[in-house]
Amino acid sequence: LAAWQEKKRVQTEDGFPRHVTRMWPKREPEILNGGSIFWVIKGVIQCRQKILRLDETSGADGVRRCAIVLDPKIIRVQGSLKRPFQGWRYLAPQDAPADLPEGRDHEEP
């Protein structure tokens, strides 16, 4: 994830990593008020990144898209089994996996 986000093509003009999606989130104010994107890697939620802002962008086809601009710091979380999904997931704070303490690189789900 970190290596992918260091590539220029996935960064905004100001150097922040971004994830582009087709749909604009319906709950934008909630997301921008301390929300994070949780990354499912190999069937496990393994980390999260804070969402800084949402930028409008368009692809080569001219279709409007949402660029989720992320804090570059990747925060490891307690592993939680999760099938890959498309679309928005809104996790209530009590349903979100807990952050791992600094220095812990791995936790089995």
Tell me what you see in this structure.
With 109 residues, the protein is mainly β. It has one domain. It contains 2 helices and 5 strands. The chain has helices at 2-5, 28-32, and strands spanning 18-21, 36-41, 44-58, 64-70, 75-81. Strands 1, 2, 3, 4 and 5 form a 5-stranded antiparallel sheet that branches. Strand 3 (44-58) and strand 4 form a beta hairpin. The mean pLDDT is 87.
Can I get a quick summary?
With 109 residues, the chain is mostly beta strands.
Beta-strand residue percentage: 35-45%
What is the terminal-to-terminal distance?
19 Å
Number of helices: 2
Helical content band: under 10%
Outline type: globular
Overall mean pLDDT stands at 87
Query: Major beta sheet, specifics?
Result: 5 strands, antiparallel
Radius of gyration: 14 Å
Quick one: how many beta strands?
Answer: 5
Structural class given helices, strands, pairing? mainly beta
Q: Can you tell me the residue ranges where pLDDT is under 50 for at least 5 consecutive residues?
A: none
Number of self-contained structural domains: 1
Element-by-element helix/strand order: HEHEEEE
